[in-house]
Write a structure and sequence with these properties.
The chain is of the alpha+beta class. Helices cover 25% and strands 31% of the residues. It has helices at 2-17, 50-71, 79-85, 95-110, 120-131, 138-148, 176-189, 282-291, 297-304, 408-420; strands at 27-36, 39-47, 90-92, 153-156, 161-164, 194-201, 204-209, 213-217, 231-235, 238-244, 249-252, 255-258, 272-279, 311-316, 321-323, 340-341, 355-363, 378-385, 390-397, 428-430, 438-443, 451-452, 456-465, 471-480, 485-489, 495-504. The strands form seven sheets. The protein has an eight-stranded antiparallel beta sheet with strand order 1-2-6-7-10-13-14-15, covered by helices on one side. A four-stranded antiparallel beta sheet has the order 21-17-26-25, with no helix packed on it.
Length: 507
């Protein structure tokens, strides 16, 4: 009887386990868009199928649009824009606008005035002066700073109203994008079947879900998209924001001035050229990243002294890296390869390592005819030698592997080899916000295995294929022997502009 009882139990266990469905393998689904909140948007989902990822994308985009209609300073029909036009009066506002205005007051106090919604007043002074190729006068800056120092509105928590006290222009640029993508990520992660979400808006991102994400931190002194990362981190359920002066600013008499200004003095940030912050709250990451460009290192240390939940990486104008003690919790080991040369004949000269090729391209802003958002096209940029052998892939941007054959020229010469390795760079990059559609790529004279090639004649290809759009490919043969040259390429339907700049590497 005892043996019969054991056999029955064993049968019950086997029978029950037979009804447990095996967990489906997760895949990464990526979508890219341009001209979203004034920059580029990357959405990345871990899911078992495309349908779940598509639904999560729909939820994220819907939330971005909803909040943009509330917070945008560029849309005349947004709630914020309408409020700014109402003049000095008390106005009932949405919970979202109230929350963002409340956060601005909080971070203004936390950063001792380094973050201020009215800093737009100072920014406008610099824009006007730079357009006239001059520096603002001391009187102009003093007047602007005095306006900034005033109290501009009063919030009523109980009634959710705001009272304007003056008509000084405000802007919610400092961390509004981070606030928006955090809400968008919340909507996406609640979609059934979604295990992980990354929402990257122009280099600021939110990661939510059950898995960690590798994030590359852009080098502010090497602005090309494919440059080696300054640093790499691994995070989960956190926000990462980077702010710096290397992509936007003012050029006056040949000197570069940051678009980030100190509201307390009116002067552009200059000592720190890049600040990256990791925090659980996206708004805080964005707000601190901006203000850390303005504050001194001692001020930053004082603000974060008791904050073990905040990590930061600062880069000074001299290239010095300053890391918080908490940064090590996220940092990944660097993997910088040694420079070696490919086998060449003795008569051949190797690539001149003092030079680099910069490929600049601007994707055309294609307007939708049906009111839907237009995806970023698939793009491939690569180099072939005089024998038409592929030497180096500089960029391959696509959403789904099955669409790679649409990049016909690239696929013909690179496709098979590409599929043998990892299909594209899956890590996202945190960087200062760029303008939509504008990208730079660099070629340092190395082939895909990391070896220096010989000097000589090579052909650069730029291929663009747009979903439900056109297909374009352009190529240009250039001689790389150590003599600087710049070539403007003929634009087409998909490329608003493109150029090849062979130049000495800036020190």
């Amino acid at each position: 009887m005892k043996f019969k009882h054991l056999a029955a139990v064993f049968l019950v266990v086997i029978t029950a386990s037979a009804f447990v469905s095996p967990k489906k393998a997760l895949r990464t689904f990526v979508s890219n868009y341009e001209n979203v909140l004034g920059t580029s948007l990357e959405l990345k989902f871990k899911a078992s199928n495309q349908a779940d990822a598509n639904l999560a994308e729909e939820h994220a985009l819907k939330e971005i649009d909803r909040l943009d209609d509330i917070l945008s300073a560029y849309k005349p029909t947004s709630e914020f824009s309408k409020w700014m036009k109402n003049g000095k009066q008390t106005t009932k506002i949405s919970p979202e606008l109230f929350e963002v205005l409340q956060q601005f007051e909080h971070y203004k106090n936390l950063t001792n005035g380094a973050l201020d919604a009215s800093a737009a007043v100072i920014g406008n002074v610099w824009k006007k002066a730079s357009a006239e190729n001059r520096l603002p006068s001391a009187n102009e800056l003093e007047t602007a700073v005095n306006l900034v120092k005033q109290q501009h509105y009063i919030l009523d928590e109980k009634n959710k109203t705001v009272t304007r006290l003056d008509e000084v222009p405000l802007a919610l640029n400092s961390f509004a994008k981070s606030y928006i993508i955090n809400k968008a990520a919340d909507q996406a992660i609640q979609t059934p079947g979604i295990e992980n979400v990354v929402v990257n808006i122009g280099g600021d991102m939110v990661i939510k879900g059950n898995q960690s994400e590798n994030i590359e931190i852009a080098n502010p002194k090497a602005d090309a998209e494919n440059e080696a990362a300054l640093n790499k981190v691994k995070v989960s359920n956190m926000a990462v924001a980077t702010s710096g002066n290397y992509r936007r600013g003012f050029n006056v008499n040949g000197k570069w001035y940051s678009h980030i200004v100190d509201p307390r003095t009116g002067n552009p940030a200059s000592e720190i050229i890049s600040a990256t912050v990791i925090a659980a709250d996206a708004s805080e990451a964005g707000a601190l990243a901006t203000s850390f460009n303005v504050l001194s290192v001692s001020e930053i240390e004082a603000i974060t002294a008791n904050r073990n939940d905040i990590a930061y990486l600062l880069v000074t104008k001299n290239g010095k890296e300053i890391k918080s003690k908490t940064w090590a919790k996220y940092e990944l080991a660097s993997d910088k390869p040694a420079i070696t040369s490919a086998k060449v004949n003795k008569a051949d000269k190797p690539w001149n390592t003092k030079y680099e090729l910069i490929v600049n391209l601007e994707l055309a802003n294609i307007e939708s005819t049906d009111g839907k958002r237009v995806r970023r096209p698939f793009v491939a940029v690569w180099v072939e030698d005089a024998a038409k052998t592929p030497v180096r892939n500089l960029a391959i941007w696509y959403n789904k592997p099955r669409w790679l054959p649409d990049l016909k020229s690239w696929n013909r010469v690179n496709g098979d080899e590409f599929r043998k390795g990892a299909e594209g760079k899956l890590s996202s990059t945190s960087s200062a916000t760029r303008g939509p559609g504008k990208y730079s790529l660099s070629w340092d004279g190395k082939d895909d295995s990391g070896k220096l090639v010989k000097a000589g004649v090579y052909t650069v290809y730029i291929e663009v294929a747009r979903e439900h759009g056109t297909y374009q490919v352009i190529s240009k043969e250039m001689k790389f022997t150590g003599s600087a040259q710049k070539v403007e390429l003929t634009p087409n339907t998909e490329l608003a502009s493109a150029s090849l700049d062979y130049r000495k590497i800036a020190k």
